[in-house]
C-alpha cells in the first residue's frame, strides 16, 4: 500500500486540504496515512463502498474495548451510550427510538421559527465590519436546537461552550488540556440534562426531550444515560455541522460571485447540495473492520481502522464531473457530506432546512454583503470550518 505523509495540523493543509486529496487519490483509492496510522479512502467509489459495507462499523470490537483513562470518564460515558458509536442491534434500537421523536414533521414544523429567527438576527447586524460566524451562522443553529430540545434559549451560550469543549476531542490538535476541558464539559452537561429530564418527566411539553422520554416509556426504552447521550449528540453534531455548512456556504457564494438564481426557490436545493459537496463541514470519519476482509487491494484484520475522507470523495472527478468547480446548477447527486449507510446523519434534514432559509434570507436582506477580510479555516481537522467570517453589509 502506498504511504502518504501529511500533518493534519499543518497550516497550508488546514487552509486547503484539497490538493493533498487530489494528489493521493490519483495514485490509489486507498493509501496508508502515516499521521493517523491507518489506511485512508480518498476516492468517491471507495468512501461510498466502505460507508455501506456492513463488515465495517463504528463500534470498537468488544475484545479491543478498554475502560479508558479515569480523567475522561464523563466524556467516555456519553460516548458509550451514543448512537454515533453503536452498531446493530443496539444501533437499530437507538436510531428507531430517536427517529420516532426526531420526525420529519417535527423538523418541518420549525420552518417558521427558522425564517423568523434569520430576520431577527439580521436586524441586529452592525453598520461596521462584523463577524458573521458569531452573529448569524452560529446563533441560528444553536437557538433552533434549544427550541427543538426544549432547553431555555438563555442557555445557548453555555450549550455552545459545552459543545465546543466536547467536540474538540475529535480534532487533530487535541491535547491533554483538551481532554480535561472535554471531561469537565461532559460532566456539567450530564448533570444539567439529568435534572432537566427529571423535570420533563413530571412536566411534559411539546419538545424533543419529552418525545424521547415518551418513546422511552412506550415499551422498548431509552435509558436515562441514552437520553442524555442522544441530547448531547444532537447538540454537538447538529450545531457544529450546521455552523460550518452555513459559514462555508457564505464564503463560497461570495468568493465565486453570487448568481441570484442560485438562491431562488427553484435553485436553492441544488445550491445547498453543491455547498455541502464542494466544502463540507466534516472531512473524515473512521470505521473498524469486523472480520478479515480484502477491499481495494488491502487486507484488513478484525479491529483495523480505516479513515473515510468525505471531503476527498466529494471532489473526486470520477464521482462528480468538474469536481473542482463550484457549480450550484449541477444536478443533485448523493455526496458524502453527512456520511452514508447505516450511520447517515439523523440531523441532515434539519441542517439542510436551516441552510435553505439562512442563505436566501441573508442575501436578500443584505444584497451588498461582502468579505471584509480573507476568511481563514480553523485548525480543527477533521472538522472544516472558519475561525471567523468578517463581512460588511
What attributes does this structure have?
393 residues; alpha+beta; six-stranded mixed sheet
Summarize the structure.
By secondary structure, the protein is of the alpha+beta class. The chain contains 16 helices and 13 strands.
Description:
With 393 residues, the chain is α+β, with helices and mostly antiparallel strands. Helices cover 49% and strands 10% of the residues. A hairpin with an 8-residue loop joins strand 11 and strand 12. The radius of gyration is 21 Å and the shape is globular.
Tally of extended strands?
A: 13
How far the N terminus sits from the C terminus, by CA atoms, comes to 51 Å
Q: How confident is the prediction overall: mean pLDDT?
A: 94
β-strand percent reads 5-15%
Binned, the helix content reads: 40-55%
N to C succession of SSEs: EHHEEHEHHHHEHHHHHHHEEEEHHEEEE
Number of helices: 16
Return residue spans where pLDDT drops below 50 for at least 5 consecutive residues: none
Shape: globular
> Taking Cα atoms only, what radius of gyration do you get, to the nearest Å?
21 Å
Strand count, sense and barrel status of the largest sheet are: 6 strands, mixed
Order of strands, main sheet, comes to 1-2-3-9-6-4
Protein structure class: alpha+beta
This entry's quaternary arrangement is single chain
InterPro entries: Cyt_P450 (IPR001128), Cyt_P450_B (IPR002397), Cyt_P450_CS (IPR017972), Cyt_P450_sf (IPR036396)
Organism: Parasedimentitalea maritima
Keywords: Heme, Iron, Metal-binding, Monooxygenase, Oxidoreductase
Pfam family, one: p450
